[in-house]
Amino acid sequence: MSDSVKFLLDEEHLPTHWYNINADLPEPMAPVLHPGTKEPVTPDDLAPIFPRAVIEQEMSTEREVEIPQPVRDVYRQWRPAPMFRARRLEQALQTPARIYYKYEGVSPAGSHKPNTAIAQAFYNKAEGVKRITTETGAGQWGSSLALAGTFFGLEIVVFMVRVSFDGKPYRRAYMETLGAQCIASPSDQTESGRAILAGHPDSTGSLGIAISEAVEMAVQRDDTRYALGSVLNHVLLHQTVTGLESLEQLAMADDYPDLVIGCTGGGSNFAGLAFPFLREKWQRGLDTEFIAVEPSACPTLTKGAFAYDYGDTAHLTPLVKMYTLGSGFVPPGFHAGGLRYHGMAPQISHLAKQGHLAPRSYNQLECFAAGIQFAKAEGILPAPEANHAVKATIHEAGKCRESGESKAILFNLCGHGHFDMQAYIDYNAGKLEDLVYDDAEVAMALAGLPSGC
Amino acid sequence: MSDSVKFLLDEEHLPTHWYNINADLPEPMAPVLHPGTKEPVTPDDLAPIFPRAVIEQEMSTEREVEIPQPVRDVYRQWRPAPMFRARRLEQALQTPARIYYKYEGVSPAGSHKPNTAIAQAFYNKAEGVKRITTETGAGQWGSSLALAGTFFGLEIVVFMVRVSFDGKPYRRAYMETLGAQCIASPSDQTESGRAILAGHPDSTGSLGIAISEAVEMAVQRDDTRYALGSVLNHVLLHQTVTGLESLEQLAMADDYPDLVIGCTGGGSNFAGLAFPFLREKWQRGLDTEFIAVEPSACPTLTKGAFAYDYGDTAHLTPLVKMYTLGSGFVPPGFHAGGLRYHGMAPQISHLAKQGHLAPRSYNQLECFAAGIQFAKAEGILPAPEANHAVKATIHEAGKCRESGESKAILFNLCGHGHFDMQAYIDYNAGKLEDLVYDDAEVAMALAGLPSGC
After folding, report:
1. Which residue of B has its CA nearest to A78?
2. Which of A389, A338, A424 is nearest to A89 (CA)?
3. What is the ipTM of this complex?
């Protein structure tokens, strides 16, 4: 048995700055528009929603953004996160490929999400905010913000998509144990929620609805702001610690990836790993490939339109240009809640549109099979979301076996699956099936995209 | 906010040897007896149960036992494990105490148990064993052996106490996903199981019964051996990596503990942390104190008898001299399954009897409250077992606040609580109550202790 190898950085290698890809984009991005006027938003427009520092980061083109010391002090609890060479998986696959994975499941919440939750909580606290509202689907993000709330003494209110609120009691218990308030969405606490419940009293909710509720509650009180766990520029910025660390860890391994792979829901874990490697590619003229993996049942990058759309169902958020399946699209109930979002990060969308990354989709059964194969080789059971990146990695490693090429593959193992055992139970019992999006429903949702922008 | 500090060792500081406390015991331990003859067991007596290398370790008085390279190669995936100074907890408690915790939840199974599971799997594999049987209560141990099975290509059969098999489907799913076979105990697959079922068709099982079943199945086939997750000398030996690492990490912190604290079920996580510090105490004439914390509902060290007893219900195991509540004692159903065992490691029992460590018990409500206080300060939600060590630590830190003394306290945070969220749900909902052992039942069980040895 040739064993898997860990590459661990000393604490002094914890990044001091995040990397802002806006400084290096070959073409500028389309502006964010005000939902009412459809004119470019100003910082003042966003002030009721986000703290000033976050708004500045959202709009910044500064290449290096300093990570505040108190944020680094918390990061240090689990960062630098380990990177592994998956030698046992390579052997199981009999591939000449060199497989590396960055493991973000070592955070106390079990995923990459605290990288931005800690930062957002810090900026809110620094500006006197007392309470943060947010939404959560599978619960990874809500758990991470709950955690950040304990570190910075903030009240956290989480609108949890009803189907997860009922079906994932353990995630909810984790948040509540850390002192966060969890509300099933749609709820009767907001106009957006009441409007949905009036038409659909049994609504199981969606991320789009939960975002509407959280934003609505945030703007009602001066001491409250809203936090988003993916999609926006500042969130992707905070996640770049993973890619920056991985660059150094690959140098320790005396290697460099030919392929960089991540799963994409809103896009933040993929961006966090990929963006620092994109900068290297552009600066050094490399030919690294980037694969963004999404579920076939929510194929935003592979089947969506590149258009202006809202981030939420009630259309309270600004309009962003992105790949979207339409803000009215409700994906089928597959077991990777973190990937069930109608849109995609504008930065990822922009880069995909320009051909800088290759989107790809897989269905859930093959992803679970890949995740279990990984677990049996490497001992870590991935979250269902991360299984998508594992599947693409195994697929590419299989191509290397056929061609005899020894490519280096790096993927983001963005979280463990300890809170997702029901999904594995269902998979093991043969109860899961492949789900595909409904062409007609997507066409209808896309037909409803906002016009005039 | 003064942040918590992590002490992380480089990989070259991964211990090369385990520490065997048998070499340094001030008085020799009582011999292990054959259950039939009641004469001291020989290695041959144990050969149908354990591989030779493990039997040698069980009986060894060699001070340093080399950790085989393949075991170190697997350890390296998560070891050296971090030690933290809990500055945020110190602040929350307003204590002058310096609180350190060794965190074993970073292993892929989420607890300290893989430290011995990996070693035992290696030794079995090296001697040609194809299949290992074991028992599990809460599931931490079964999960760890399942993990070790994937690393070394061994078939793993886990007899899971019926009440956990039914009530902890996520733990079971974790083991099954890694390829282990889980059987609810008592089962119809063994004589011991059938005997119990004949009398009690609805039996919810116990660790003692599950051990009987696993041992019985192991001795039936030449290619099968049995593995135990705590209690025995070799298990405690393998756990000493935690204490050996902690010694080096405290040197990094330029500190040394006045108090060393761990929870005790079978005793292995406590021993792993404490034994290397006991050696230091004896060698250097220090006055370090050692606190072994157990649940009030299963008060082996604080209320049991120091006597020869069986490790299992069907009396298939050898007789060991230990603190015991009687092998017929079934503890009430509190939420720390790993601490529900009638006996205690003979080494721990011996040291407690001689006054080298101070046993203490707490009830479950105060332990959950302490665990949640810890989670809110440090961000890590402990397993219910570990909450007992947290409670004692907070208690001692409170005494420092009152006295003004700045003691250094080190405790073993032996696992995270991600698989134990139902316990937290019940606690948060006010559904848990303090349970105490039944004096009369214990007296009856103790009256049934084996005689003539």
Report:
1. B6
2. A389
3. 0.93
> What span, in angstroms and rounded, lies between the C-alpha atoms of B85 and A240?
27
In a domain, B329, yes or no: yes
CATH number for the domain harbouring residue B417 = 3.40.50.1100
> Which residues neighbour B198 within 8 Å (Cβ) at sequence distance 6 or greater?
none
Nearest partner of B286 among B276, B294, B295, B296, judged by Cα: B276
User: pLDDT (tens digit, 9 = 90+) per residue, B394-428?
Assistant: 999 999 999 999 999 999 999 999 999 999 999 99
Determine, yes or no, domain membership for A319.
Answer: yes
Q: How far apart are CA B146 and CA B157, in angstroms?
A: 8
DSSP code of residue B185? E
Question: CA B393, B394, B399, B400: dihedral to nearest 10 degrees?
Answer: 80
Residue with tokens 């108190």: A70
| β-sheet with A289-295: strand ranges across | A5-7, A83-85, A98-103, A408-413, A259-263, A289-295, A358-362
Residue B291: beta bridge partners? Answer: B261, B358
A-chain residues near B76 (CB < 8 A): 3, 5-6
Angle of helix A268-284 versus helix A233-252 axis, rounded to 10: 60
Mutation choice for B interface testing from A89, A151, A387, A413 by most B CBs within 10 A: A151
Residue A133 tokens read as 């509202």
Judge: B177–A3 Cβ closer than 8 Å, yes or no.
no
User: Min CA distance, B31 vs chain A (Å)?
Assistant: 38
How far CA B83 is from CA of A1, A320, B22, B116, in Å, comes to 30, 44, 26, 20
Tens digit of each residue's pLDDT (9 = 90 or more) over A211-259: 999 999 999 999 999 999 999 999 999 999 999 999 999 999 999 999 9
Sheet holding A155-161, edge to edge: A181-185, A155-161, A131-136, A224-226
Task: Let me know if residue A81 belongs to a domain.
Answer: yes
For residue A299, pLDDT over 90 is answered with yes
Domain carrying residue B431 = 5-14+67-110+233-447
Q: Does a structural domain hold residue B47?
A: no
The CA-atom distances, in angstroms, between B286 and each of B259, B280, B290, B380 are 11, 7, 12, 32
Annotate A223-273 with DSSP letters as a single string.
TEEE--SSSSHHHHHHHHHHHHHHHHHHHHTT---SEEEEE-SSSHHHHHH
Burial class (CB in 10 A: 0-12, 13-18, 19+), B77: buried
- For residue A19, give the H/E element and its range: strand A17-19
Structure tokens at A46: 């966003």
Q: Do B174 and A424 touch (CB under 8 A)?
A: yes
Q: What is the pTM of this model?
A: 0.95
Find out whether the peptide bond into B186 is cis, omega within 30 degrees of 0.
yes
Task: Report the alpha-carbon distance of residue B409 to residue A382 in Å, rounded.
Answer: 35
Q: How many structural domains compose chain B?
A: 1
| Residue A1: per-residue pLDDT | 42
Residue B269 tokens, joined: 């996580």
Question: What whole-number distance in Å separates Cα of residue B165 and Cα of residue B172?
Answer: 7
